[in-house]
Amino acid sequence: MESNNLFSLEEKWEAIVTCDHSFDGKFFYAVKTTGIFCRPSCKSKTPHYKNICFFNHAREAVQQGFRPCKRCRPELLIDSYDPQQEIVEKTKLFLEKNYEEKITLDTIAVIIGVSPYHLSRTFKEHTGTSPHEYLEQLRIQKAKNLLMNTDHNVTEICFQIGYKNLSSFYKHFKKSCGCSPHQFRLNQKKSKPPV
Length: 195
Hints:
- This is Bifunctional transcriptional activator/DNA repair enzyme AdaA.
- This protein has helices spanning about 10-15, 60-65, 85-100, 105-110, 115-125, 130-150, 155-160, 165-175, 180-190; strands at about 30, 35-40, 50-55, 65-70.
- By secondary structure, the chain is of the alpha+beta class.
- The longest helix is centred in the last third of the chain and has 19 residues, at about 130-150.
């Protein structure tokens, strides 16, 4: 079994058993019986101690013929990998590309490949908002940009950013900005220096 001089074998084993994130990027371990290598924080079933070997770098494990774990993604050139963060990033990307469409939590969950409950809970834990609240914030940001940089009327903007009716748009805009879309546009024009 190879040893990384920075940590004893006991420290490494303890890190694996406890799935300690603080050791990620400092060493990797491979399971001889499965042919897979992992980060110390991997949530996979704890292997038998006699079946593991340690590596300082992911490339060393690959050179020895081990495959990267699909759960903890040790081959990625980042110190730690959080699969939950990947769910959040994919959700944000989907919302940013499709904000003008009618989007439900179920739709997003199918696209991302997780249950609606898991998606909602994970997104809120990582961002502090629900996917729906994030979508509303995104739409309001797009509306503000259109109000400041185009001559489109409020009704056109409302439908361009994905709202199906004006009252819902006004309600969310006022809640976010403290004024109506029309007032927001007037305030922006007043604050712009003359050319």
